[in-house]
Write a structure and sequence with these properties.
Blueprint: H1 3-13, E1 15-16, E2 44-49, H2 61-66, E3 71-77, E4 86-87, H3 117-130, E5 137-143, H4 155-166, H5 173-177, H6 183-189, E6 202-208, H7 210-213, H8 222-235, E7 245-249, E8 271-275, H9 276-280, H10 287-291, E9 295-299, H11 315-327, E10 332-335, H12 341-344, E11 346-349
Parallel strand pairs: 2-3, 2-10, 3-5, 5-6, 6-7, 7-8, 8-9, 9-10
Antiparallel strand pairs: 1-11, 2-11, 3-4
Helix pairs in contact: 1-11, 3-4
Length: 351
Amino acid sequence: MRASAIRTVVAGIVVAGAVAGGSSGAAVADGRSARADDRPYAATTGVGVHNAYEKTKYPYFADALDSGAGMLELDVWTNVFGGGWRVSHSNPLGNDNNCENAQRPEELRTKARNQRLDGCLADMKAWHDAHPGHRPVLVKVELKDGFQGRNGRGPADLDALLRSKLGDALYRPGQLAEGSANLDEAVQKKGWPTRSELAGKFIVELIPGTVEQGNPADTLWTDREYATHLRDLAGAGRLGDAGAFPAVLGAASGDPRTRYTDASIRPWFVLFDGDASVYAGGSVDTKWYADRRYLVVMSDAHNVAPAISATNPTEAQARDRVALLAGRHASVVSSDWYPLPGVLSTVVPRG
C-alpha cells in the first residue's frame, strides 16, 4: 500500500486515547468518545514508548502517563547488591528514573525523582486517581536480571507489591481467566474485555531482561518462572493473587510456546513480544495470534524497512508505520516516539 493510502486509512479509523490532561478519552473520528469504544482490547492496535522512565524523555513519569501512549516500559533490577526493585537502564545498584513516589494526585511533579519500582507504581496510582476513566495502559516490565526470590524479590513478592500499590487499578490474570482453566482457554473462548471495560486499568507485562538472558548461571528466566507461578497459583485456587502477565519474548514462526519443555505452563502465555522487523518480514504468520486473540507487542518499530527515526520521525512516517504493523496484527507498536503525543494516543483496528 502506498504511504498516501495508508495515511488515508489511518485518518479514517484513528481513535485517540487519553492525552495530556488525562480525560477518559479524546474524541474519535465520528464524534464518539474513546470511553464508548466497545471493541475488544485484542482487536485494536495502540502505540507504546520504550523506556518511558528515562528523564531525557519525560521529566516525570506522570508526563509519560499524560502522553496518551498505550504502553509504557520500565526496566527493573533485583540483584542482591542493591535494595528493593530498582528502576534504571544501566545502573544495576541504584535508581535513575523519573518516578517520584507521589502519594496523592497533587504531589505529582513535586517530589524527588529516582525512586524504586514502588515509587513508579505510586505515581501510576496517583495519576489514576486523578483520571479514573483513563485508557487501558500496558506496563511492560523488563526484569533486567530476573527474579531474586531468596531476597524478597520473587514472583509472589511482585504480586504483593502490584496489589498494594495499584489496587483495583490493576487488571489481573485471575480476572481474565475467570470461568476458564487457564489464560489460553479464556482468551480463545471469550477474548479480552473491551477497551471500555478496561478503562481505568493497568495491565502489567513481564519479559526476561538482557542481563538475565546473558547470564549462563541463570537457568530460570522470568517468563518461565512467572508462568510456572501462575500455573501453581491456579492449582492452589489462588490465581486471584497474581498481578502480571508473562510474555513469550522473541518473534518466531509457529507457536513459540513450544520452546517451553514443560507443556503445562504453555497455556499461561497469551502475550507475545518481539522485534517488529521479524513480525513484518513475512516469516511469521501474525494472523495466527489475532485469530486466537493473543496480544503481540512489536518493538523497535522504526527499524522496519524502510527505517525511520527512532525518536523523531515525521508524524506521517510514524502513522504510516503504525498502520503497516496494525495490518500485521500488532497489538502494540513500540518505539521511542515520545515527541509525538498525537501518534502515541493513536488506536486503530488490528488487522
